Amino acid sequence: MGENDAVEIPIDGVLDLHTFRPREVKEVVPEYLAACRARGILAVRIVHGKGDGTLRRTVHALLARDPAVLSYGLAGPDAGGWGATLVTLAPPGAVTPGR
Fold it and tell me: What value does the CA radius of gyration of the chain take, rounded to a whole number of Å?
């Protein structure tokens, strides 16, 4: 597969970032969240891995800027612990406060 080939990922509320290059994350996360909202999926789990925390910090920065994100936080031990973030999205069409 070439570098410009589109990768189709299922829109099921779980985004595993291990399949993406770090430079793709800033584009993938907001697009995935928008696709989830469009389908009425308002509880999302983003798997960023534990590592050194760089990817987690990037994901959290993206979430903090997204007005459709109502809340987010590290997952509990049953959902990936500090290797995943749980996100709650506003319903489609809902007015969300600016950040």
Answer: 13
